[in-house]
Structure formats: C-alpha cells, structure tokens
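== Sequence, structure tokens ==
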Amino acid sequence: MTHAFNVAVIGGGIVGLAHAWQAARRGLRVALFERTAKAEGASVRNFGMVWPVGQPAGELHDIALRSRELWLELGRAGVLTVQECGSIHLAHHADELAVLEEFRDRRPHDVRLMTPTEVAAAAPLANPHGLLGGLWSSSELRVDPRVASARIAGWLGEQHRVACHFTTTIIAVDDNRVIATDGRTWQAEQIIICGGSDFQTLFPSVFTDSGLVPCKLQMLKSVAQPESFRQQPHLASGLTLRHYASFRECPLLERVQARIANQSPELDRYGIHVMASPFPNGEVILGDSHEYGDDITPFDKPEIDDLMLRELRKVFRLADWTCRERWHGIYAKHPTLAVFEAECRPGVRVFTGTGGAGMTMSFGLAEQAWNRWLGVTA
C-alpha cells in the first residue's frame, strides 16, 4: 500500500525536523523518515549552542536570529527548555582582546566588552588568571541536544500531524516515491533529503560533485560541578576566534592566527578551539576539534582529547575535571555555502551541509527555502 503526502522529509535530525516543521506550518501533509529509533547523528552530539554571534553580519546573521526566534517559539510552546543564556568570548592574550575590541566597534548594537571583574561575576567558570576581558553577546541560547530532536519530533506528530516513521531506512527515491528496506512505499509531491553526513545511500553522484566534506569532532562532558558553576553563559576561548566566520571581519585576527600557528601548530593540525557549555544539572560540555575528509577514521585520537584538556584548563576552571563522557560526531560541511541544496530531479531536493551551525541555522534556512520554493515574499 502506498501512502500519499505533500512532503516527505528523509532524515530526523535538526535539519530534517526544520523542514518538516516549516512544511507542516504551511498546512502541508508531511511524513518524516529516520533510520534509527531517534536521531543519533550530529544533532545530538554537540554543545547545545544556538550561536548567532558566530555568523557574519548580513543575511546569515539575520537567518541565525530568525532561527533563534523559532527556538524561543518552541520553548514558549513547552516543547523543550530553551535558555536565553548569552555568551562570553574570553581574552587571555592582548591580541585576542584587540580582536574583541575591533569586533565590538563593528557591531556596537550586538555586543559589549566586559572587564575581567565583570566576567568573573557573570561566569565563575572563566579562569581569572591572566584574563584581560570578555565580549558579551545576549543572543545565544542553550538547549539540551540529547533530547531536543526527539521532543521536536514528538511535538510535530502530536500538534502538526506529521507522520514520523522512525527505524525506517529509505533506500531509494523513484518517481516521487520513497522506498524503505522492507518494501513499504510512500508517495510525495516533494521529497527533501536531509541525510547529514550520509553521502552514499541516496543520489551519491550528487554528493560526489557537491564539494561537501565530512568533518569529525571530538567532545567531552564533565561530571556535575557545584551549584556556583551552574546557570552561566556559554563560554568561548580566544582560540575560538579562528573558527567562526564572524571574526574574519576583523583584520587583527591575523595576529591571533599567526601566534597560534607559530606557538601551537598542533592546534591548527587538529582544528582545536575550546568552548564550554554549562548545563543546569552541573555538567559541562567541552570541546572541540575538527578533522576533515580522508583524515577521519573510526577511532578517536587520545592526543586530541589531551590537547583539548590542556587548552581548556588554561581558560576555564572546573571544581572537578573528571570526564564523564567522551564521544565524536561527524557532520557535512561545504567550504563556501551555509547549506548545500540541489534538485536531483523535479520535486526531489537534497538539503544538507550546515556544518557545525546546524542548531543555529537550520530553522531559519528551512523557512527561507520554503518561502522561496512556494514563491512567498518574506
């Protein structure tokens, strides 16, 4: 028996959920397919950071802020807890503080500089030794990545009548039909493939020519910290300035990059920049690293964890540095695009490759895409 829908979304991670939500809120009949019992990919293996401050000024920053509004909408609807925690970039070197000042001058309405005393009061997790200041941004949110996807999927099923099919692997798309491994089929006028870093199962030739590369990151979680370490903003080190596109607006960033390349080339080798996301239960998610393409293996590198912990201890302070969990995630990234989109055939699109900004950008990118596909003027 073939079931008919307006839209079929393949992939139950945050990108697929964003498309299912945007289609459903336009009154379309939507089916969502995920091969596992719940999302297990990059959508659950991250900091839980919604991070507009990392997006360059202009359209991408606007999309991130729109995504932020949609996350808050989910919070108000009781789907999951969404904390308006904000973020602080820490400066422990003079060249880092100079970049933060330059960034502040370019975005005076978005951020403000904090003195070391102000940082210490707002974020006891920050290491005060050698701290020169911080950059406060109020736009960042915290969600629990371990539960966010599952709760959004449940809400979409209950409130928007999205037909969610978990433990259902789609192995082919043929004549606007999606076909599962057990032979079941579903008909859909539009099919959106949001398979994350899976480049092999559906339309592999599209991915071969896409420019997409997989990126592997290693991460850690601490044991629960004392009460004084909880309810804090996200924290990013000066190393993070090398990672996010927003800081490339600052010419002085070259000094930070040169210092790190000369003094600690091993950090560039593994793409290490360190951040901390403290959760209300006292646990802190820590990381991370970046390996690309052929450098990726199934095996985590202990030296990466050691390097991350070395740098984390310089800029953050925990009462207990015992690691409760260690893991890695793999996401798809495009070298120049915020997301990779391709029409494989009429009515069948691939939409993936949000890189490490999936939690930040997916809702806004999906809304923008559906407006364009349906000819809606925002």
Remarks:
- The chain has two domains: 2-44+146-208+338-373, 87-138+213-333.
- The domain at 87-138+213-333 is CATH 3.30.9.10 (D-Amino Acid Oxidase; Chain A, domain 2).
